[in-house]
Amino acid sequence: MRGENAALGTAGLAVFLALGEAVPRLGLVDDDYFPPTSRIAGALADEFGDRTFWSALGDTLAGWGLGLAIAVGAGIVVGVLVSVVPHLREATASTIEFLRPIPSVALIPLAVLLYGSELRSVLLLVVYASFWQVLIQVLYGVQDVDPVADETARSYGLGTWARIRHVLWPTALPYVMTGVRLAASVALILAVTAELVIGAPGLGARLAVAEASQAVPDMYALVVVTGVLGLLINMGARTVERRALAWHQSVRGEVAV
Fold it and tell me: Which whole-number Å values give the CA distances from 191 to 65, 66, 101, 200, 257, in the listed order?
């Protein structure tokens, strides 16, 4: 089944690339604005041979990775505290619902005002956007804890941290991993967006320079790089999720299928 899906996916990609080559060469679109696949591939090869490209890629991954780590750690800690401290969930519910819908891009002027085009501006946007993905999933996960299991743990004399470790955490972990997977993709989007708009070092800033200088094939090549990077991040997050939840029924069922 997996082999068949992989073959279909490869065939679909081949058709897409062939269309990308044929459409501009047939004159259906202006190749000055939509170059053929072969020209994009050539520009991509040139990018791989440029040291500044790898430096920009490293800057983007640094902002993505550091921001994601901060967001995941803060989201888990805050989510657990809000859930286990009496009345704290009710006290913070309105604040969370007010802050969560604010688009991260709306904070770009604030980030520029505070940190200019430094890495800290990227981190501010990445952390803010990714934090909510993790926090909300943690809150949902804690809500799903079986009250009978929690009361049984209390009756056996388990303390707060022991109940968190043996009752709350196993129940919340699938939700946490979902939040981490979502946050990983959101973090990449915000990292590239921040670089593109603010001018912080990274692939986004390089993409903006290519667009401004009318280097259209290079621009498309960089778009391809960000797309592949997002695909790899999602695949990596799913792999970590499957390994961390190898004991869970959902993953065991997926493996069985």
Answer: 10, 11, 19, 9, 36
For 3-24, the pLDDT digits (tens) are 566 677 778 878 888 888 888 8
* Closest by CA position to 200, among listed 69, 112, 71: 112
The Cα–Cα gap between 100 and 94 comes to: 10
Cβ-in-10-Å burial (0-12, 13-18, 19+) of 127 comes to buried
* Amino acid found at 5: N
Look up residue 237 and give its two tokens: 């997050």
Indicate the DSSP class of residue 164: I
| Max Cα-Cα span within the chain | 76
The token pair that represents 124 in the structure block: 């501010």
**Residues 152-191: tens digit of each pLDDT:** 888 877 787 888 888 888 888 999 999 999 999 999 999 9
Comparing C-alpha atoms, which of 82, 177, 84 is closest to residue 133?
177
Look at the chain and count its residues: 257
CA 195 to chain centre: 16
Please give the distance of CA 239 from its chain centroid, rounded to a whole number.
Answer: 14
Backbone angles phi, psi at 34, to 5 degrees: -140, 85
124: left (phi over 0), alpha (psi -120 to 50) or beta: alpha
Query: Do the beta carbons of residue 125 and residue 62 sit within 8 Å?
Result: no
Contacts of 26 (CB under 8 A, 6+ apart): none
- Quote the CA–CA distance of 63 and 201 in Å, as a whole number: 10
Single-letter code of the amino acid located at 76? I
Calpha distance 148→130 (Å, rounded): 33
3-state secondary structure of 158: coil
